Amino acid sequence: MGKRDNRVAYMNPIAMARSRGPSQSAGPTIQDYLNRPRPTWEEVKEQLEKKKKGSRALAEFEEKMNENWKKELEKHREKLLGGNESSSKKKEKKKKEKKKSNRLSSSSSSSSSSDSSSSSSDSDDEDKKQGKKRRKKKYRSLRKSSESSTSDSESDSKDSTKKKKSKEDYEKEKDNKSLSRKRKKIDRGNGPLSSESLSESDPTEEVQVKKKKNSEEREKVTDKTKKRKKHKKHSKKKKKKTTGSSSDSE
Prior knowledge:
By secondary structure, the protein is mainly alpha-helical. It has helices at residues 13-20, 30-34, 41-188, 195-249.
């Protein structure tokens, strides 16, 4: 069996349109739009003048409405002001009546008010006294704490000086014992002391004297520094106390 021929002839659309000729459209064309009737310059001026006249009439109408509205507002204000004046007069009358009633009641309540004022003044005095007592207690407690701290520091310094002195005394006793032993040994020897033995014993004694002087100078310096520190601490505590007392008084 042979194949079926499905080929279709090609038709050029542009050639087909040309063969049909110009199409008859229902709407206006571009040429019709360009050839439309147009108004002249004189007609345009007339239209503009008409518009201006219409706007003038509207402006006049608005002015009249504004004037009427202003008049109505003035009337309303006058009414309100008159009502306020009458209400103010009524209030003044009420105030006068209240004053009269207060004067009558004040004569009866004067005795009770004097009693209440005396009681309130007494309560105020008691409050002030209590506040003063509290401030005094605070000041005393601060003072006691500062005194206890200073006494503790002084006792510590005394203990340290006593310990140092006991050590120095012990060292001095040792040195004296050693010197006495040496002298005894020399006395036990043959005859009187020679110049060489004296010269040997003298430098040892000089060295000991120098050590004692140096130790005494060191103690003096340490005592001075401690005293300065104590003085500074005491001055700082005094400043704190003064600031605390001033804040309490305020």
